[in-house]
Amino acid sequence: MNSAVKPSDKAAPDFGRALKDGVIIAIIAFALLGPLVGLKTDQNMANELILQNHLGLAAILSAVVGVGRFLLSAFVYPRIAARGNRSKAAATLAELEARARVTRGLSITGLIFLFVYPILIISLFGVQGSIKWVDNYGVQILIYVMLGWGLNIVIGLAGLLDLGYVAFYAVGAYSYALLAINFHLSFWVLLPVAGILAAFWGIILGFPVLRLRGDYLAIVTLAFGEIIRLVLINWKDFSGGSAGISSIPKVTMFGIYSFDVSAPNNFAKVFHLAASSAYYKVFLYYLILLLALLTAFITIRLRRLPIGRAWEALREDEVACRSLGINTTNTKLTAFAIGAMFGGFAGSFFAARQGFVSPESFIFMESAVIVAIVVLGGMGSMIGVALAAVAMVGGTELLRELDFLQVVFGKGFNPDQYRMLIFGLAMVGIMVWKPRGFVSARQPTAFLFKRKTVSGDLVKEGHG
Amino acid sequence: MMTSHRTWDSDPVLSVEHLTMRFGGLVAVNDLSFSAGRGDITALIGPNGAGKTTVFNCITGFYKPTTGMMSMRPKDGALHLLERMPDFVVASKAKVARTFQNIRLFSGMTLLENLLVAQHNPLMIASGMTFLGVLGIGGYKAKEKAAIDRARYWLDKIGLTARADDPAGDLPYGAQRRLEIARAMCTGPDLLCLDEPAAGLNPRESAELNALLLSIRKDDGTSILLIEHDMSVVMGISDHVVVLEYGIKIADGTPTETRNDPRVIAAYLGVDDEDVEEIEQELDEAAGSEEGRA
Fold first, then answer.
1. CB contact under 8 A, A445 and B184
2. Which domain holds residue B283?
3. Touching check for A444 and chain B: CB below 8 Å?
């Protein structure tokens, strides 16, 4: 049957018709844009009404529309039509396996790339020039990869929609900030403490909340995130209010080397290097990389243990779980607590990296970004979530570099204002193109004869 | 089986006494008492809306009954009062497993995974409540291997071994029903509650189901309580039939006794004379096939 369908799939695009479509649409667009964009009324010095001519811009925009339509007609529509011809459960096992192989290859190359990335950047841009690429891109993205992987346990595996994840991030950050400043404890002692405190708050929140399901759970977790933030703003004696906490100690290299400029064992001084904050950034990069990989490692192990299977079973059908003797409350609580623990780790890292925390860093928008990363990546998939974090965080950062658009739209054009618009359009596009996220297929946790990838169509998304 | 004629009186595995379940003003089950004998296949039948599934939900802890007592006596001799237990404890401690009228499999997980989830509680202990398992110590691997062997045993029994690594949602309907029974059996129950296991099965699948249930009773010593509309299943394999109508028990006895009970014929089959004749004939045929089997 496949062989009968294939030839029509590969049919050459009908360029003639696409060209005609494109020209017609461009003319229509110009007819609309000409008066709307091309002509602008203004006042001159003598307060007289004058007409400014922007027909060039209108022509450019019309051309963009025309080319877009041409591309759609030539390449996209035929493919959509071809896809419609195939049956709905089109993803055959062979296709799924091929995709799974690609994913595996991608994760190995990705891992190698992550380890050599700072070296690569330093050799390309020099020590001082590497700061932007290692810190703004590398560390920033990896924090979100770790947060995405932590939340993936709650949303992707256990199927519980948690919109207040940033609260645990805040608990971790403030735990480190307050304990380090008041008790002078080192990062390496406080990292587990921050994780345990965040997990503790996960359980505190979980007990009353986990009897709720679906939308109700989402609303209550969202409220919890806001409560933590408002407490941090208003309890000034404890958290410094909206002024936040500053001069949080830096991470030391296991107490052997320090990155404080004044310290005698300063890393750069000991090795007689030119003073630069770049060394600290590279150190932080490897630290967050290892923390993120720890998250991934533990999650992968947990999935293969009974608790992980119970999480996934919970996502599939809670009632059936209870009929099999699984204590669903405890199972949900462990998912919440472990997810929160990784949030706490990431939070304490965040506080040490910034040297400053304030409630401003833990607004709902952060939770929304992390949830978007998990959903965009494909719920439950580690590599998908990592790719989504790169796209979401790296993408928004990259969109700062849109200065070249000034060549097209003139000097007055400020590309930064369009950053979120472009980003939103990209998100809509991805959701249309891949509604179940980048990687929707599921890898079974045990097999009798052969590990076969499970199509995302069969995997449920959870309801609570 | 015929030697201990009324096991449900002499050695009940489950006794339901004065069970009443009200939903607001509606009395779904009214003062119901019956017993299920150890090693018996007990059928709970009745017209639509008679309250059969409500009884099931009370027994398995999904509903808290308004009044009544349900005592479960597993093989280890303990006595569990089911009305005091939350649903998951009914399954884990009192050893009552169930299936659902509308199949509830973990459709995105493979057959093997479905059967491993059913062995969650012993495996949790084997993994040192996860802590040792994450570190890779404590001999979890061997225990998991044993769990996979047990799953394999059930896959062999329901004839789905070849599809062990396929997602459960890909199975045809009849196979999903069998898998759900196997999953319930993987919890190691003493009483298996089946809610309409033959619904939607063709005659051949229905006969296979009968064979499966008989072998579960024979090989695993599990007592079975089932709700069923398919008379070939009810009359073919059950030792004991309880008939409900409007939440009230109207008959209780061997299949032969209940079949001839005029109240059952009136309630279950309707009072229309033509219908009665027709169904009586059908029941006689079923009885004939039962005697042929015996």
1. no
2. 1-95+189-294
3. yes
Test mutation, B92, B102, B110, chain A, max A CBs within 10 A = B110
Q: List B residues 174-203 in contact with A (Cβ-Cβ < 8 A).
A: 183-184, 187
pLDDT number for residue B5: 65
Confidence at A4, pLDDT banded by 50, 70, 90: very low
Note whether residue A353 is domain-resident.
yes
CB contact under 8 Å between B148 and A446, yes or no, is yes
Q: Select from A117, A146, A78, A145 the least CA-distant residue to A345.
A: A146
| Domain co-membership, B183 together with B198 | no
Q: Is the pLDDT score of B4 beyond 50?
A: no
Q: How confident is the model at residue B289 (pLDDT cuts 50, 70, 90)?
A: low
Rounded to whole angstroms, the Cα distance separating A367 from A388 reads 15
Bridge partners of residue A43, in order along the sequence: A49
In a domain, A440, yes or no: no
Q: How many CB atoms lie within 10 A of CB A419?
A: 17
CB A25 within 8 A of CB A31: no
Residue A172 has pLDDT above 90, yes or no: yes
Q: Do residues B203 and B148 both lie within one domain?
A: no
**What integer pLDDT is reported at residue B277 of this predicted model?**
64
Domain boundary among B156, B187, B218: B187
Specify the number of domains making up chain A. Answer: 2
- B246 and B258: one domain? yes
Any B CB within 8 A of A338 CB: no
Q: Give the domain range for residue A307.
A: 102-433
Residues 61-100 of chain B whose Cβ lies under 8 A from any Cβ of chain A = 62, 87-89, 91-92, 97-98, 100
The predicted complex's ipTM stands at 0.86
Domain count within chain B: 2
